[in-house]
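look at this stuff:

>
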Amino acid sequence: MKKELSNEKTKEQEVFIQENIKKFDEQYKQSRIIPEDYNKKIVNRILKNTVIAVIAIVYLILLNVASLHMETIPYIISIKVLSVVFAIISVLYFELCYKKDNGYLFMHGLEFLVLATITLFSAYAYYLFFITYNSILLYVLIAVIIYYIIKTICTLRFMKKEYYESQNDIKEIVKKGNKKND
């Protein structure tokens, strides 16, 4: 009789455990789904990065094509003017970053500053490495493409991680446990 009762309890416990595992699994799957509004935030950030990447890529391609079809003096003057324009854009981003205390604006400002620096040094590279100048610009273009691909992947992973950490309440539980122990 006792064995039958213990077998029934064991079966009930197994059923109870299996049901709890299924509930936990469902809750876990639901917690891994990112809400639509946060997905839009991720897409907006990636689109902003993509727009800046396309601007940089098109700019470097046009710089390369212009070096083939323009005379030297007008080309160098246009490079210097464009370098100043990108430097001004960079400073504007830095000012916005400072006012809004936004790290992403700082990154965009830094990217425009790098683009301004590349443009400024390309004027001197045009004189020093005239024969291989277009190849140098091509390598810079490839580096920019690789950078933006890596940046997009990192942004996506970082934002997902940020969301999952915001949904995790373990830190709050640990803080409450530490307060009770003190």
